[in-house]
Amino acid sequence: MDFRVILKNVNYHLSVSATHDATHDATHDATHDTSNDTSINAKQKRLLEFCSQAKNRNEMQAYIGISNRSHFSKFYLKPLLASGKLRMTIPNKPKSKNQKYITVSV
Q1: Which residues are paired to 101 by β-bridges?
Q2: How far apart are CA 54 and CA 56, in angstroms?
Q3: Short-list 100, 97, 91, 85, CA closest to 49
Q4: What are the helix (H) ranges across the chain?
Q5: Angle between helix 35-50 and helix 57-64 axes, rounded to 10 deg
Q6: Measured distance CA(42)–CA(61) in Å, rounded
């Protein structure tokens, strides 16, 4: 007498989703349309004005209408931090739940 047990791979959708996201990001980066750059620049300027007083990430994302955290980080937050136009209020703890961002006065 034999019997077979078939277990459902509960992580299958996670691995398929991760593969899809990586492929989508690579395709998006390779075919990036520069006409979107003006929209990104305009939203970055709005963020800098909005952050004249310290704001957290969720407030910033809601203000410009971006719900995807990684997209927001890649196209808005990281470029503004790298350019020195925006700074962290807790720079030694970049992943702190209390982290806020403020526009650098020139």
Answers
A1: 55, 88
A2: 7
A3: 85
A4: 12-30, 35-50, 57-64, 69-72, 78-83
A5: 130
A6: 14
Q: Which two tokens stand for residue 6?
A: 């078939």
* Residues 48 and 85: beta-carbon distance below 8 Å: yes
Q: Can you read off the two tokens belonging to residue 96? A: 């702190």
Question: How far lies 50's CA from each of 10, 45, 97, in Å?
Answer: 42, 9, 20
What is the rounded distance in angstroms from the CA atom of residue 64 to the CA atom of residue 46? 8
Which residues fall within 8 angstroms of residue 2, CB to CB, at 6 or more apart?
Answer: none
* pLDDT per residue of the chain (106 residues) written in tens, 0 to 9: 788 888 877 776 665 555 555 555 544 554 455 556 778 899 999 999 999 999 999 999 999 999 999 999 999 999 999 999 999 999 999 999 999 999 998 6
